[in-house]
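Obj.: predict assembly geometry.
Materials: sequence records (below).
Method: joint structure prediction, all chains together.
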Amino acid sequence: MTAPLLDVRNLSVRFATEGGPVTAVQDVSFTVAAGEIVSVVGESGSGKSLSLLSVLGLHDPRNTTVGGAVTFRGQSLLDLPARQMRALRGRDIAFISQDPMTALTPVYSIGDQITEQIRAHEAVSAKAARARAVQLLADVGIFAPADTAKRYPHQLSGGMRQRAVIAMAVSCNPALLIADEPTTALDTTVQAQVLDLLRKLRTDFGSAIVLITHDMGVVAEMADKVVVMYAGRVVESGPAAAVFNDPLHPYTWGLLGSIPPLTGARPRRLPSIPGAPPMVGRVPAGCAFAPRCPARMPICSTEPPRIGTADHLALCHLSAEQRITARPPALVPA
Amino acid sequence: MIATILQRLIQMAFVMFGISVLVFLIFFATPGSDPAARIAGRNAAPETVAQIRHDFGFDRPLPVQYALLMKRLFITRDLTSFVNRGQKVIPQVLDAMPATLSLVIGAAVLWVIGGIAVGLTAAAMRDSWVDRGLMIVALIGISMPVFWLGEVMNLLSQSRFHDTWLFSWVPGLGYVPLTEDPVGWAKALVIPWLTLAVLYIGIYARVLRANVIEAYSEDFIRTARAKGLSEGRVLIRHAFRTSLLPFVTMFGLDFGALVGGAALLTEVVFGINGVGRLTYQSLQNLDLPVILATVMYASFFVVAANAVVDLLYAAIDPRMRA
Amino acid sequence: MTDAAPASSEMPAAVPENKDGRGPWATALRRLRRSRAAIVSALILALIVLACALAPLYAGLAGSDPFRSNLGGKIMVEGKRVPVMQPSTTGLGLGVTPIGPTWGTAYMLGADTQGRDVAARLLYGGRNSLFIAASATAICLVLAAFVGIVAGFAGGVVDMVLSRILDVLWAFPVYLLAISLSIVLLNSSFTLGPVTITSGSLILPIGIIGVIYVPYVARPVRSKVLTLRQSEFVLASIGLGMPVSRILTRDILPNVIPTLIVFVPILLALSIVTESALSFLSIGVQPPDASWGTIIQDGQSLLYSRPTVALAPGIAIVLTVLALNVLGDCLRDALDPRFKLG
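Observations (raw structure tokens):
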């Protein structure tokens, strides 16, 4: 088996608050192979964005401590000197942030900002970089790319802005693209187009994508592999087919159950997971999900073990029989 | 575009009108004393006072008085000082302008460069000893009354250390016109420039630092870093550039106010015959015609600066170009 | 629920609510108490206020009347009786120079042109400077709150008129306005109805300084009120038909107060500096009263021979204003909901 492109092992992120240091992310591990789409899914506050930001070194160094091991193409990222990290960013690993409204600098034109990225990593003339920027905008499906390149971010619609951000991110052909909820701030029709675009990037350029989202529908459509996070921990991970057909963790059941079904009888109410995720620093001892878990047992007050196979893991106390009894049958396709 | 300019001009005219009314009310309509006697100045003969009362129409209703005054100031432009009898007022103000301009422009260059350097350095090294030290120095700069600082500088450069290499080149207090003697002009202005600039460097450095630090928490800074840009580029081309608007706004207003004579304390302390000093002397002597002219001149610059700053908004921030 | 997983009474049904729900005031106070800079500046301010308040005590100890000319006086310095006005060729050019700092109890900082004890005058002057600053700040805040709230809440014509007035007032360069008003009012008594304010009264600088900074505070207040007026809870109150006075006192005023509080140290500092400038130009505090500004003016003729007279009040101003600025910064940070550590 070839070495994975990105290998995250036991990643932990702690930061300082007024009330003392808190652990926001704990013991997170996953891998991304070349050309693979991995979806990291969870509620707001589950630590998914923070984990990936820390991988890229975009956390606030003054009050955040990152532990564990992260390797990219065999190179350790966490202790990489700043200059080399900067060379990696934008060129080998690209990042697309959540809100296209605020992701672009308001005082420069789109073309200027894309050109800036290209020239930061490659020695090309301004003219050549500009031409490439226009071509990229065309590639992401923007109509009249030369005109658009002259415009400012506030003059574009949300969908166009997100496309421009994607164009900028892939301008140097990165091997890995980290997309933080790229469709959350967009309308559904535009969502579909952006997702298509991302898939095309994988096909045409072979980029691997880490897709952060809270929308299981997006996960179903895009992901090769799924990583489910809750309260800063990975509670389940595995190939998409396995996770959807045989979800191991009660939290995953809740997530899957909240997707409105397209077939079958119309449910009277959409099932939801009662309660709210714990605040950072107030995670209960033992299994973090236990207070909200429909299948909780007294033993859940202790740390849950890692169960499952090498490919498909979960962090849960339930034995196989207990799981079969507890899991809602509707979730599992017949 | 024309409509906006026109609207601006009307607004300016309105504010100037308001200010002229305010000046008029302050000096003519304050209850409790005789405006004619005030204009005539001290030691004026009763005939002069009666003449003035007739000329300015103090026996007429207030609005008429106001109109007559404005006519003499703007239309016939023959308003003369009553302290330096016969000297026309408007040329007096114009003569004093070069001194003020020299002082203010020189100080402005210093404080813009200084403010940007200190502010950006402090922001880039946020919370380090450098940052804290710079901000304390800036705070001290703000806390010193400018006239007192001027006195201290005079004490050091004219008296205590005048004979040392540090200050032996400092000429006596006063202004040397540029056309007469460029080197002397600069030498006489260096200490005043520094004194005036200290206060403003403090203010601008603090504001710039606060704005840049706030810009740092914006999303687009994270995007810029994710693009792999160097920290310096992120600071200057992204954080600083987006913080420019409040900086330029403040600068426009401060510069306008200073050119209009707000530097009067500095001018008085250093003996520079600028508009500020003229204003102060005329106020002391209750030389009403000169007061009117200088105050109107000052307000014109403040109002004009406001308008220019508004127009600059569009140039600096593309979001303002509707 | 299935029978494989009985609900255990030990486990909470849902995550417990955040118990640390302190109000913004308690949090602000806690942050201020923890900030070393805030505590040090508050202490310095307290010391300065205390020292000035105890001025009569000091004058008694120093054994001099800081308001009476003492040209022929003699004091004890290191066991010898020396005249207060010393013979010299430099200095005042009258053949005498006031005595320099003795660093003893009497005439610690020397004498001024009238032979008066500078240190004692410094403390008395501080009383006036601080009193004027505090009163002017109070007046300014009350007026600005009133104008800002009325303009922001009433909107329409009222707002337009008030805003224009504020614009004109603010376009008038602040110092010019202060100087003009001072000069005019100082040269004549000001009679408003039954009230006559004589030219030497302290009320003049207080009133003038209080008024000229009103636009500075009223504008942010007005902006805040404009935003508040559109907020949902105010709209709800209006929809419920609550009387305007109740909306103003219950919904608007409590939310405007933080904005006003942040201005307190700023205005105090501005008032002290403005008053000192006016007094320096001889149009602020009038003799026989003293303030830090008047003492600097007194020290002008002695600048090169006895610089302490001019330096001491300036240093007092710098210390006070510096402490106020630091406190103002800490206050603003403490009230900021986005307070970040590090």
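Conclusions so far: The two ends of chain A are 33 Å apart (CA to CA).
To do: check interface contacts against the pulldown list.
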